[in-house]
């Protein structure tokens, strides 16, 4: 599919994996970031309090990433989820206290993780807490301590190390409250003031709440030597290339994360907060992940590649998909030269697009050989079994 200056592949399978796929993940997270920012702006304009928090675990390089799979739950990812459930579960006493004392309506929570060779996997939550109204200075401090106390109780109860609750470093940003929980009240001043949250590395100016919650793909690790998921993937690929395919520490960490991230929810919004957003008629994109990653909108077809040709000649050869998109972006003229340079024949292996849109039903039914309309006598698997039986019979 093509339009001036852009191109996309359609009709191919998409994984829609926000954790591992840079292609699908960046597109899905961009929409979620827009939703989070629109929600924050709308809530602030209606006088609600916004508080951006971070909940972290004490971790060491020897601790495994783990898994959240059913009957296989262990490691840091299991601890992160169980610690949250124990601290802020909707049926627990801490949650009821937060609602009663501070007017907490709900939260939107986002998962993030980084990795460093010295510290191992670092998993944490970013959370936008929403209160019925902005809190004053004393209320902010009490709210932070209530959040921190609940987290400090929930993590050890889930089997983890005690989280940091004190700090003796001079002039530390935590104010001596420790680094297990961070909470910043974003609009404690006048109603409708939309907050801005500084990026961690300090060289990107200010960033919106939606970016902080959702766009881990645009962030760097807080400390030098700590890598985000995409950076870790790049490091693992470079490592394998340099070592001739022998996995090293980067590859091992990437594969450990690849297995353990299965089933982890990237972003979650409580039902109470979601109901409030709908009642205030704050606009939200409600497209499915398939609709988000489908880039065919506004594009016209310029080339049809049958599935057999696609898998044999394009998908299995590194770089060809990117080459095809890049050539199409610069115009339709070079597409045939590129296709034929791969040894494919125009009109036999690949085709011009149909004159009519394939999404519209045809008014006149095309003539089809009656033989093709008969149901298949055997499935593909049955064909394989029959061939194997004939081969065994021939040997005997």
Write the layout of secondary structure elements.
Blueprint: E1 2-3, E2 6-7, H1 22-45, E3 49-56, H2 75-88, H3 93-102, E4 104-116, E5 120-131, H4 137-157, E6 181-185, E7 197-198, E8 206-207, H5 209-214, H6 229-243, H7 249-260, E9 267-269, H8 271-279, H9 289-293, H10 307-315, H11 320-329, H12 335-341, H13 370-373, H14 380-395
Antiparallel strand pairs: 1-2, 3-5, 3-6, 4-5, 4-9, 7-8
Helix pairs in contact: 2-4, 6-7
What descriptive keywords fit this protein?
two-stranded antiparallel ribbon; 14 helices; alpha+beta; single chain; Rep protein; 396 residues; 2 domains; 9 strands; plasmid
Largest sheet: 5 strands, antiparallel
Mean pLDDT: 82
Q: Over the alpha carbons, how many angstroms does the gyration radius reach?
A: 27 Å
The tally of structural domains comes to 2
- Alpha-carbon distance between the two ends: 54 Å
Instruction: Please report the total strand number as a whole number.
Output: 9
Biggest β-sheet: strands ordered side by side in the sheet: 6-3-5-4-9
Give me the oligomer status: single chain
**Structural class label:** alpha+beta
Query: What is the overall shape?
Result: globular
**Helix proportion of residues, in percent?**
40-55%
Model regions low in confidence, pLDDT < 50 over at least 5 residues: 189-207, 359-366, 371-379
The fraction of residues in strands falls at: 5-15%
Instruction: Spell the H/E element sequence.
Output: EEHEHHEEHEEEHHHEHHHHHHH
How many separate helices?
A: 14
Keywords: Plasmid
Organism: Streptomyces griseus subsp. griseus
Protein name: Rep protein
């Amino acid at each position: 599919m093509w339009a001036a200056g852009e191109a996309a592949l359609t009709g191919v399978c998409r994984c829609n994996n926000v954790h591992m796929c840079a292609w699908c993940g960046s597109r899905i997270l961009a929409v979620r970031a827009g939703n989070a920012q629109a929600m924050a702006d709308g809530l602030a304009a209606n006088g609600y309090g916004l508080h951006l928090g971070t909940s972290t675990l004490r971790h060491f390089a020897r601790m495994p990433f783990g898994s959240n799979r059913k009957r296989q739950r262990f490691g840091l990812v299991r601890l992160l989820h169980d610690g949250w459930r124990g601290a802020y579960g909707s049926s627990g006493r801490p949650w009821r206290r937060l609602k009663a004392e501070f007017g907490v309506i709900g939260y939107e929570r986002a998962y993030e993780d980084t990795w460093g060779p010295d510290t191992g996997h670092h998993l944490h939550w970013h959370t936008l807490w929403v209160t019925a109204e902005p809190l004053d200075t004393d209320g902010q401090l009490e709210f932070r301590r209530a959040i921190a106390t609940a987290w400090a109780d929930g993590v050890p109860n889930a089997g983890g190390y005690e989280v940091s609750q004190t700090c003796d470093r001079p002039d530390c940003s935590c104010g001596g409250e420790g680094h297990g929980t961070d909470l910043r009240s974003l609009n404690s001043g006048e109603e409708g003031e939309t907050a801005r949250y500084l990026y961690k590395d300090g060289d990107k100016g200010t960033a919106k709440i939606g970016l902080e919650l959702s766009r881990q793909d645009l962030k760097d690790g807080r400390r030098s030597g700590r890598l985000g998921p995409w950076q870790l993937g790049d490091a693992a690929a470079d490592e394998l290339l340099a070592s001739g395919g022998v996995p090293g520490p980067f590859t091992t960490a990437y594969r450990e994360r690849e297995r353990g991230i299965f089933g982890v929810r990237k972003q979650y919004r409580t039902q109470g907060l979601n109901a409030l957003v709908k009642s205030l008629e704050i606009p939200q994109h409600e497209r499915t992940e398939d609709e988000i990653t489908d880039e065919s909108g506004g594009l016209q077809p310029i080339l049809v590649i049958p599935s057999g040709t696609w898998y044999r000649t394009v998908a299995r050869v590194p770089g060809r998909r990117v080459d095809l998109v890049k050539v199409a972006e610069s115009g339709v003229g070079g597409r045939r030269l590129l296709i034929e340079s791969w040894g494919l024949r125009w009109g036999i292996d690949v085709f011009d697009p149909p004159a009519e849109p394939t999404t519209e039903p045809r008014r006149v039914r095309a003539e089809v050989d009656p033989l093709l309309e008969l149901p298949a006598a055997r499935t593909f698997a049955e064909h394989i079994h029959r061939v194997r039986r004939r081969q065994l019979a021939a040997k005997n």
